[in-house]
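Q: Convert this sequence to structure tokens.
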Amino acid sequence: MHFEKNLLYHIYNRGNNKQQIFFAPDNYIFFLQKMHLFIKPRCDILAWCLIPNHFHFLVHATENSITQTPNSNTPMQHLSDGIRLLLSSYTKAINVNQQRTGNLFQQKTKSKCLNDGSEFYGLIAFHYIHQNPLRAGLVKRMEDWEFSSFPDYLGTRKGSLCDMPLAARILGLDMKRFFEESYGMVNEENTRMIF
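A:
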């Protein structure tokens, strides 16, 4: 993965062979703690969602994102290294917890720059990420899924991962119409542009 300062990225990965990666509520919470440790200090998180077999982040790259990791045998940007540390530490814990071995995640985490086309791609990714649990049939209402940033933007939870003012500014969010706009179905053709 390569990041450039001040650009938006859709970062995602799923379980190896599409297998489950979150087995209990504590697993989601542990992953979020790791996000606070390894991802938040290295970029601006604008949105996130965790569902049983995959995750999505929408991030804004900062100077810290693109800085090379010191004392590394392989040159790597700070954000890429943070993602590596997040996934490897989570995998080790899950392997112990679930009495399993091997890779939990697919080998390559994907990162799509959203500044390559329409200014709209960031907003499409933002809504797509929050709609994931609804699209997967996990809930009937997005606000019922606790493992995404949607409740934070809705104002029903005080999460600390997302930089909501920055997201509102960069994405042009209308917070008065946030709920209504969030339920607008994302055009499938546009969805392809965020992957």
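Residues 78-97 form the longest helix (20 residues).
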